[in-house]
Amino acid sequence: MILVGHQLAAAMAAAIVALWLLRSRWTHAHPRAALILWQISGLTLVVSSVGALLGFGLAPFGRGLLPALVDLPLRIHELDLWHLTSVAAGLGLAGWLIANQLLSLRSTARARARHRLLLQLVARPDTDALVVDHPAAVAYCLPGRTPRIVVSAGARQLLTAEELGAVLAHEQAHARERHHLVVAPFQALRRLLPRNKALIKVCSTIELLVEMCADDRAARQRGREPLASALERFHANGAGGTPAGALAVSDTAVQARIRRLREPAAFGFPPAWPLACVVVLTALGTSASLFAVPL
Ligand SMILES: [Zn+2]
Questions:
Q1: What's the confidence (pLDDT) of residue 4?
Q2: Fewest 10 Å CB contacts: which of 134, 142, 157, 249?
Q3: Cα(115) to centroid of ligand 1, in Å?
Q4: What is the pLDDT of residue 250?
Q5: 176: number of CA atoms within 13 Å, CB side?
Q6: Mean pLDDT confidence for 5-17
Q7: How far from each other are the two terminal CA atoms of the chain, in whole angstroms?
Q8: What would the mean pLDDT of 195-211 be, rounded to a whole number?
Q9: Which of the four pLDDT bands, split at 50, 70 and 90, describes residue 142?
């Protein structure tokens, strides 16, 4: 039971940090720091939830989780119904999460591959992007091993040269910083529980923070105002319709991003951030080590 207690404590620590992130106002000023905490907290919650279920179920063996799982086929008769149910729930949850992540990655990769093929047919290469001859104003990054930055003829017409440069810098930031890998685990979870309001809130928060990271990089290269006015034009023009698996310049909480670019919040780096990092990393380390260390 000590093992279960440790796993539950790790899950609680990660949940407290996640709640703090959801309620904090500094996250928009320091999106990268917030994303680091989100990723560690999310991983900790998953590992410790599976660990708590397996820890309770395999407690009669008195061993670490992995050695106990190896023993399971030979000693399964020693477990009563409650412990067996808990082991089945733990293994089921782990399998469900892993399978869902893999399926989500596969379907996203297929959608991107289809879109890449389509681009070969309809887009023409320009100096820093592929141009699609379409009147709708669209710009997006199609991530992958060879990322593609795509901009429509409508967007080129809509934006000034400075604004277009800022938009392309935003999309290049997505590609360079591999933002699709940051959002992928959370999007896969949302696919698993599409009506879960808490998960919807967390996913939209992560997506917004990713957009803000790309905004910051673009603003450092091209200035804040060209990107803010480009976003404003996209928004006023009703831009949207990003293909599946792509990261667009203007799909997420545009008003908040414009406001942030024009009036940067005066939030200093939160002094509690290093402490929160230590808490979730300790929780994750404890939770993961309990899989191997015998108690
Ligand atoms: Zn973007």
A1: 83
A2: 157
A3: 18
A4: 57
A5: 10
A6: 93
A7: 10
A8: 91
A9: very high
pLDDT, averaged across the chain: 89
- Please tell me the predicted confidence (pLDDT) of residue 127: 81
Same domain, 159 and 271: no
Distance 210 CA to ligand 1 centre (A): 7
Instruction: Identify the band that residue 241 occupies on the pLDDT scale cut at 50, 70 and 90.
Output: low
Task: Give yes or no: residues 29 and 119 share one domain.
Answer: no
Residue 139 Cα to ligand 1 midpoint, Å, equals: 9
**Domain span holding position 290:** 1-79+266-295
Is-contact 284 44, C-beta < 8 A? yes
Are 181 and 71 contained in the same domain? Answer: no
pLDDT at position 3: 78
Q: In what order do the strands lie in the sheet with 130-132?
A: 123-125, 130-132, 148-152, 139-142, 247-248
CA 252 to centroid of ligand 1, rounded, Å: 8
Tell me, rounded to whole angstroms, the distance of Cα 283 from its chain centroid: 20
123, 118, 115: which is closest to 152 by C-alpha?
123
CA 21 – ligand 1 centroid, Å:
21
Answer for the pair 154, 78: CB distance below 8 angstroms, yes or no. no
